[in-house]
Amino acid sequence: STLDRSSAASDVYKRQTEYQPIGSNFASNAATISNYFQNITKEGITLPVSYQARFLNFNILTEFIVAYLSLCTLYRPRYSPFGTIKYFDLHAGLVNILDKGAISFRQIPLCESALRLIISYIAFLKDFAKKFENRYPEVSIGICSTLKGDSPLFQKLCIRSKSFETLKANYMHKYTSNMWLKNNYERHYMSTFLVNEGYSRNDVKMLLGHTSPSTRSERFSSNDYNLLHSLVDKIERHILSPVNAGGLGIQIQRYLYDC
Question: 0.90 exceeded by the pTM?
Fold first, then answer.
C-alpha cells in the first residue's frame, strides 16, 4: 500500500511491484545527485597561496562534508546542521541527531567513510587554528570554541570579517542552479533506494527519525543497531560505487585532510 500523501513534507515512497514502480514524489535521480556533488568538487580544494584561498578551502571542505554526512545519515537540512562536536561519539562511531526537535532524536552509526571525513576534518580545524593564531587570532579563537563544543561544528568562515557564521540550511543552493534538487533530497532518494533494495518501510523509518524506542528515554536495542549498521553500510556502498555500476560515484579522497 502507498503511504499517506496528505503532507507534502512527508517522505512518500512505496515498494516496487510488478505493476507499481518504486518512487517518492520528491525523489531526485542518481544522475542529479552525482552532478550536485560534482559541482561542489568543481569548486576544488586549491593549493593555498593566500589566506583568501585558505578561507575558501575551509568553506568548500565544510560544505562538502555536511552534504556527504547528510547523505549518509539522512539528516534533515536545518540551520546549524549536526550541532556541535559533542553530538559525535567518534570512538563508538555514532552521531546523535536532533534535526526536528526532541521527537526526532536518534543515534545513528557513522559509516566508515563518514567517520574518516569527520576525524580528518577535526585534524584540519586544529591545524587551521595553529596557522592563523598570530595573524588572525579571532579565527583561531573561533575554532577553539568549536573544538570545545561551545560553537557549531560546521560554520562558514567569512573572508572579509574573519568571523564565523552559522551554516544555513540552504547552503547547497549555489551548487544546484538549473537542477531539480530540493531540500531533503537525500532523505527521499535514499529511502526510495533502500526500500527498492528490500528493506521494509519500518526499517527505513528508524533511520529517518520517524520511529524510535517505545519511550524517548530508551536507547535502540542491539537488534536495532544491527539494522541501522546494515542500512548505513548499504547507503555507503551505493554512494561510493561508480556511476557505471549503478552507484553515485562520489569520491572523498581529495577532502581527506593531510596534516
Answer: no
Instruction: Name which of 121, 25, 107 is nearest 67 in CA terms.
Output: 121
CB-CB contact of 204 with 197 (8 Å): no
pLDDT tens-digit series, residues 103-134: 888 999 999 999 999 999 999 999 999 999 99
Which grid coordinates are listed for 158? 567569512
Q: What are the beta bridge partners of residue 95?
A: 88, 108
DSSP secondary structure, 27-94, as one string: PPPHHHHHHHHHHHHHH------SHHHHHHHHHHHHHHHHHHHHHHHTPPP-SSTT--GGGEETTTTE
Q: Give residue 26's pLDDT.
A: 55
Own/partner long-range contacts of 235-244 (Cβ < 8 Å, ≥24 apart)? 235/71, 235/72, 235/111, 235/190, 235/193, 235/194, 236/72, 236/111, 236/112, 236/113, 236/114, 238/190, 238/193, 239/68, 239/71, 239/72, 239/113, 240/113, 243/30, 243/31, 243/34
Q: Quick one: residue 165, left, alpha or beta (phi over 0 = left, psi -120 to 50 = alpha)?
A: beta
pLDDT > 70: percent of the chain: 80
Is pLDDT above 80 for 20? no
Q: Which residue has the cell 583561531?
A: 140
Return d(Cα 230, Cα 240) in angstroms, integer.
16
The yes-or-no verdict on residue 159 having pLDDT over 70 is yes
3 state SS of 244? helix
Look at residue 172 and give its three-state secondary structure.
helix
